[in-house]
Specification:
By secondary structure, the chain is an alpha/beta fold. Helices cover 12% and strands 26% of the residues. Strand 5, helix 1 and strand 6 form a beta-alpha-beta unit. It is globular. The termini are close together. The structure holds zinc ion (ZN). The site of zinc ion has 5 residues, from strand 4.
C-alpha cells in the first residue's frame, strides 16, 4: 500500500463549539473588521487551553511535571497506531492488549465518540473513556503518547483524575479531542503540535495523520 494523503483529525474551533462543562468556552471576536471599515480583520481569543483537539502536559495533574512548552517533539511526530475500540462505554484492557503495544508507541483510540459525540455541540457526558486500570496498563506498556477521540482521557463522572495521573505520572503525553471518523484503524504517521505556551499544562493542537504501509 502506498503512503496516503494527509488527513486532518483536528476539531474545528468556532464560537458555540463544545467545551468541558465549567471550563471556559471558545470565543473569537473581531477587534478590527473590514466590514466595519477598519483596515484589516483582527481576532481576539478567549478560551481554555483544553479546547477542541489539544494536548495535556504532565503538569496538568503532576506537581512539578513538564509543561507543554517542554514537550519532546517526538511525542507528537512519528509513527502512530490507530486502534478501533468496539466497547461503547470504556476502553478495556482486554480490547487493547491484543494489539501488543510496545514501549515508545503512539496509540490513538478510535471509538464511537468520533461518530456520535462530535455530532453535536452539546457536551456528551457518556463518552467512551479510559478507565484507570487501562491507564495503568498503558503505563506498564511504556507507550509514549495516547490519543482519544473526545475531550478527556478519563470519564466525566469517573476516572478523571485517576486516569490522568496514571498516564501523565508515567510520562505519557496525551492528545484529547481527536476526530477520527474518517480514519481507518491501522498504521499512520502522526503530526500533532500543541502551541508553545510557556508554563502551560496543555495547549490546543493541530493534528494530522497519513497512512503508511502496515508492518
Ligand atoms: Zn486536556
Amino acid at each position: 500500500m502506498m503512503t496516503g494523503e494527509w488527513i486532518d483529525v483536528s476539531a474545528p474551533l468556532y464560537n458555540g463549539m463544545v467545551h468541558w462543562p465549567g471550563d471556559a468556552p471558545f470565543e473569537r471576536a473581531l477587534t478590527l473588521s473590514l466590514d466595519r471599515g477598519d483596515e484589516c480583520n483582527l481576532s481576539e481569543l478567549s478560551t481554555t487551553a483544553h479546547i477542541g483537539t489539544h494536548m495535556d502536559a504532565p503538569s496538568h495533574f503532576v506537581a512539578g511535571g513538564h509543561t507543554i512548552d517542554r514537550m519532546p517533539l517526538t511525542a507528537g511526530i512519528g509513527p502512530a497506531r490507530v486502534i478501533a475500540i468496539e466497547d461503547q462505554k470504556v476502553i478495556r484492557i482486554e480490547e487493547v492488549e491484543r494489539h501488543r503495544l510496545q514501549k515508545g508507541d503512539r496509540v490513538l483510540f478510535k471509538t464511537i465518540n468520533s461518530a456520535r459525540a462530535w455530532a453535536t455541540d452539546q457536551f456528551q457526558e457518556n463518552f467512551v473513556h479510559i478507565p484507570e486500570p487501562t491507564a495503568n496498563y498503558l503505563a506498564r506498556c511504556g507507550v509514549q503518547t495516547v490519543g482519544v477521540d473526545y475531550l478527556s482521557v478519563g470519564g466525566y463522572r469517573t476516572d478523571g483524575a485517576g486516569t490522568h495521573r496514571a498516564l501523565l505520572g508515567a510520562g505519557i503525553w496525551i492528545i484529547e479531542g481527536l476526530k477520527l471518523r474518517e480514519v481507518e484503524p491501522g498504521d499512520y504517521e502522526l503530526i500533532c503540535l500543541p502551541l508553545k505556551m510557556v508554563g502551560a499544562e496543555g495547549a490546543p493542537a493541530r493534528a494530522v495523520l497519513r497512512r503508511v504501509p502496515s508492518k
